[in-house]
Every structure is written in C-alpha cells, then in structure tokens.
Design goal:
alpha/beta; globular; single chain; 305 residues; 5-stranded parallel sheet; 14% strand; 10 strands
Length: 305
C-alpha cells in the first residue's frame, strides 16, 4: 500500500506504485506539492547481497506462476504483469498455462487459453473475449498494448473484469463481423485475462488513458517484477542459467556457459539490451564460431560505447 500526502497533511492511499505515481503526476501538474510514502527505490536493490537478491527474484517469479495458475482456476479475474523486455515474463505465464492444459492436449481438446500478440481492435477484442467467455478460460495479451491504449478497448476490458457477480459486455453498434460469426451483441464473460507488458503505467502521459488504466488496475492483480537495474537483469540471467534452462540444447559445458555470463557481466553497458534473449544470441554466436566475441561486438553491442 502506498500513501500520497499533500502539503496540508491530507492523505490518500493507493494499492499500486503505478497508481500513486500517476496521482502524484496529476497533482504536480496542478501545482500541488505532495510526497509519496512507501515507495521503493529500485536502485536500493543493488545494495542487497547477490545470493539474497537472486532468491528474491526467483520468489517473485514463483509468485507469478502461482497467480497464473489461479487465473485458470477462476480464483482471480485479471492480472497485469510488467517488467523490462527479455526477462521471462511470457515464459513463466505460458509454461504454467501449458502445464495446466496438458491433459486436454493429450485428448486433442481445444485449449482453454489463448495468447494474443500484436495489434487488436476493440471489435476484435470483443470477439476474442466472447470466444473465451466460459469459466476456466484465460486470454493472455502479450505485448498487445493496443488494447491498453484505446478508450473503447479499455471500456470493454473494464466491463469484462468488473468486480460484480455478473460481468456482461455489450457491443451496441452494427457489425458485419459479429453477424457473420454468430456473435451476439451482448454476453456474460466468466473467464480471466492476463496482460503482459513492458509499459510502466505511471509513465503514460495521457490523463484520459491514466484514468482508464487506474480503473483497470483496480480490477486486476498488479505484478511488477521489479527488475529495473542492470544488476537485477544480470542476476535474473544467472538464476535461469543455474537452473539449467537457459542454454538447454546447446550442449555447452558449465565453463562455456559461465564464459558467456562473464562476458555479459564484464561490460554490461555495451550491450544493446541486458536480457535472456541477449544471452541466447551470444550462445548462438558461440555455437557457430570460435571468434564469437568479435561477432558479438558487431551484432550485439552499441557502437562507440
């Protein structure tokens, strides 16, 4: 819980860091001085001993797995997962949902979840929610940020994830698509939704969208993976490598795997990004050439750094 206190001592509480930061920004624009209580400084993570911090990171991803399982069980209606690119947000969610659907896969049944990537219109969103409107279904919006940046889409999502006992969604406009696909102009949504995004909601500039996103956050569990520093991203890479998952299939020795991690750790600021994906790019280069570090300087690093 976070608290916003103005110059007169009036306090207001917020459930998420994103919500309190957005409120702070709005008040600052109106010339109202205020301070946030309970805000965590991401850089303070760098003061935590390495092994302790690795354990904290692992525990946070375990929480993500637990929350994902709860989505399909219907125990929670929505979850927003935010964090930097390439740290395994999508992998954790997908792995959990696939495990839960394994018996359905064996029986050749339709999966009770779908992952939506790329762009999506409000009409497409309405149709997709109808397709997965049954209890136990989950729609995962993975870097599908268009639904979070559009007023109409956000209103549909707010209706789908409302806290009331019945969540009814309406499409009160003529649509050839809905008619041709036999989709009604209203239905009850009993499923769940997960949003995986790199967006920090408090950084959204539009006041109109901020209000929508705050309403969406109030309906969802908000999981910030808090991997905001270079060191945290490196520790996440180390954590996955230790488990044996990162370089699976490359047939590297432990020393060869460690050589890649050391290479990233020795000059982190030079890489275009610090992520699991970058570690795999280096693994690809190491597999094809003994001169892989020279190749990495050209293909994976910033020029002139």
């Amino acid at each position: 819980m976070f608290t916003l206190v103005d110059s007169q001592g009036i306090e207001k509480s917020y459930k998420t860091e994103a919500a309190v930061k957005a409120a702070h920004t709005r008040l600052a624009k109106r010339g109202i001085e205020c301070k946030i209580i309970g805000l965590h400084d991401a850089k303070s993570n760098d003061l935590i001993p390495e092994e302790t911090r690795i354990q904290e990171i692992e525990e946070r991803f375990e929480i993500l797995n637990t929350m994902t399982a709860s989505l399909q069980a219907g125990d929670i209606r929505a979850m927003i997962v935010t964090g930097p690119p390439g740290v395994g947000k999508s992998y954790g969610v997908m792995n959990t949902l696939e495990r839960q659907n394994i018996f359905g896969d064996i029986a050749n049944q339709k999966r009770k979840f779908e992952v939506v990537k790329g762009a999506m219109t409000a009409l497409g969103l309405y149709a997709k929610l109808y397709e997965y409107s049954g209890k136990g279904n989950v729609v995962v919006f993975d870097d599908c940020d268009s639904v979070l940046m559009d007023d109409l889409s956000l209103n549909i999502l707010k209706a789908a994830l409302d806290s009331g006992k019945k969540r009814k969604i309406f499409w009160n406009a003529d649509s050839n698509k809905l008619r041709s696909e036999g989709i009604p102009d209203s239905f009850e949504f009993k499923g769940s939704a997960c949003f995986i995004t790199n967006i920090k909601f408090e950084n959204v500039k539009s006041k109109r969208l901020q209000d929508h996103l705050e309403a969406l956050m109030s309906r969802a569990h908000y999981v910030d993976l808090t991997l905001d520093t270079m060191r945290d991203k490196l520790l996440r890479i180390k954590q996955i490598a230790r488990k044996g998952d990162l370089f699976e299939g490359y047939n590297f020795s432990r020393d060869e795997e460690q050589e890649i991690i050391n290479y990233m750790q020795d000059q982190p600021e030079r890489f275009r990004e610090m992520s699991l994906r970058m570690a795999l790019k280096l693994a690809d280069l190491k597999k094809i050439s003994g001169n892989w570090k020279k190749l990495a300087e050209t293909t994976c690093m910033k020029m002139g750094v």
